[in-house]
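Issue 218. Parser rejects a valid record. Input:
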Amino acid sequence: MFKKILIANRGEIACRVVKTAKKLGIATVAVYSDADRDALHVKMADEAVHIGPPPSNQSYIVIDKIIGAIRQTGADAVHPGYGFLSENPHFAEALKAEGVAFIGPPPVAIEAMGDKITSKRIAAKAGVSTVPGHMGLIADADEAVKIASEIGYPVMIKASAGGGGKGMRIAWNDADAREGFQSSRNEAKSSFGDDRIFIEKFVTQPRHIEIQVLGDQHGNLVYLGERECSIQRRNQKVIEEAPSPFLDEATRKAMGEQAVSLARAVGYHSAGTVEFIVDGERNFYFLEMNTRLQVEHPVTELITGIDLVEEMIRVAAGEKLSISQADVKLDGWAIESRLYAEDPFRNFLPSIGRLTRYRPPEEGTQADGTVVRNDTGVFEGGEISMYYDPMIAKLCTWAPDRAEAVAAMSAALDDFEVEGIGHNLPFLSAVMQHPRFREGKLTTAFIAEEYPDGFSGVAPEDADVRLLAAVAAYINLRCLKRNVLISGALANHPRTVERDWVVTLAGHEVPVTAYDEGGRTVVGFDDGSSVSVVGDWLPGRTHAIFNIGSQRMGVKVSASNSAFRLRWRGMDAVAHVRSPRVAELARLMPAKLPPDTSRMLLCPMPGVVTSISVKEGDQVEAGQALATVEAMKMENVLRAERRGVVKRVAAEAGASLAVDELIMEFE
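Output the parser choked on:
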C-alpha cells in the first residue's frame, strides 16, 4: 500500500480524498494556488505545496509544477480528483516516468475515451449503442452550420475534450449553430486547452443516466448500478440520484453490461463512468466515458456501501477487487444536491465573495434512520473565488425509498445556512417540492420547461402562508415576552402582552391570536382553527426548528427592519407582525418602487468582459448579443431585451466588473 498520496486537485474533491486516505493510514499532500492558500483542503492534508498563481493554467494543470511537488514531498502516488489533470494521459505518463502511481485508469484508456470522437468509434465497435452524429472534426462556423443542417436540428455542439458542461451548446437553427460553435470552441480552449469540436443529434425528451464501473489490473470489472443525472442547467448537473426512477431491471442490466464491455475494450481499471442518453422508450445511447471519479459518486457509495476512492487506491496499488458482480446489491435510495455559488434570481449567474455564514446540517444517521452526508471544500469565513468551479458543497441524503430520500433532502436543505454570496439553495428546495420531480418524471429539459422565465422564488400557497404566519406569531411573542421581562424588571412592575395581531407576508394579511399555554404557543386564526407551535428560536438565532402540529419546519430567520425574514422550502417572505390598528394604517402606505434600469445593461455577476459586440450609435434588436462576460470558466452572452439605440458604452474588453456595474446604456 502507498505511504503518501499527493492530491492534484482542490476544493471538496481534495478534501474527500484526504478523508479516505486518512482512514487507510496514508499520509496526504495538498497543492494550492495563491487563491487557495487558506483553503480547507490545505488545512486537512498532512503537507501542502504552493504551485503558482490563481489561474489553473498557471497552477493546477501545469504538469511540471505537480511533478515538482511530488519530488519535494516524496509522494509515491497521485490522486487527480476530477477536472484539471484527471483525464490527461500525458500527466499519467509523466507520473509513470517518475515511478509514481497514478490513482486512475491506464493512459491508453484515458486517451481513447477522452476524445469523444474516438470514444464513439470504439463504443460502436464494442457493440455499444451510440447517438447519430458527425464524428469528424469541424473547422469553422460555416462547416458547423452545414453539418448541423445535414444531421437535422436540434443538434448538440460539443467539445471533443469537454466535460462538466463546458464547451457544450444546443443549436435549434443556423444562427444557434454559428454562435454555439464559437462559444463552445472558446470555452473548450480556455478550460481544456483543446478547441476541437464535433456535432451530434440532440435526443428529445432525454434522460441522462450513467453507469458506474469499477475494475482492477487483473481483468475484473463490475458495474455498480446507475445514477439519474437529468436535472441539469446549461448541461451541468444540479441534482443526481441513485438508482434511477425510470429504469427497469432489464434496462439496468443491459446498460451495465454494455458499460463493462466498453471498459474491457480499452483495458480499463479503476473507477469510471459510462454516460448514456435514454429516451422515453428506454432506448439508450452512449454519450461518453469519464475516465475518472465523478462529482456525483457519493450517491453510488450510499446505495452500495462501497467507498469508491478506497477502491481506486487499492486498485492502483495492484490489489484485486474484493467484490464480483453478484456481490453488488443496491440498497435504498440516495439523492445529491449540488450547492453552487450562483444566484438563481439572476439567471443562475456566478457569485463570489466571503462566506459570512456556512452551517451545513448535521451529518450521519438521523433519528428517523435516514442519512445525511455533505462533501465540501469550504468553511465559514472562507472566500469563493472567481477562478474556479462555483461548487460550494454536495449535500446527499439516503433513505429506504425515493419518497423518504426526497423528504430527507428537503429537511436537510431547510437546515443548511449559507450567507454572504448568492447561492442556489432556494432553487434546490423548490425542485424537491415540485410535483413533477416527486413523481420522477424527469428529462434534461426539466429546468428549462418548468422554469422557462428563470427562478423567482416560490410563492407560498394558502397552507404555507398559515404555517409561516404561525412561525412569525411565535417569534413575535418570544420577542415581546423578552422585552416585557427586561422592561418589567427595570420598571419594577409587570406588563402585559397583547394576544391579537395581524401578520402580513407575501401579499397576504393573516389575523392571528398568539399566547402561551402548557409549554407551547397556541396560534389561532380568524376561521376559528388553531395550531400548536413548539420551537427552539431565541433572539439572535438565524435558524430554528418549529413543530407545528405534525409539521417539522427548519426555517432561516433574520431581522428585516421592523419585520422578520423567513426562508423555507424556496420561499422567502418578509413577515410584519402588527397590532390590528397599525396594520390598518400600514395599508395606507404607498409601495416603494424599484429604480428604473430598463435603459441600462448592467453586469449581472462579477466577471471579465471578453468582448463588446456593439458600439455607440448602433441600432440593436431584441435578442441581439451585446457583450460577453466570462466568470468561473463559463462564457455568458448578454443580449438586448428590446429594440433600441446604444447611447454609451461604459466598459471595454478586458475590464473586470462587479455586480450591477454599468456596461452600456441606451437612448
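Fixed in the parser; the record now loads. The chain is about 30% helix and 35% strand.
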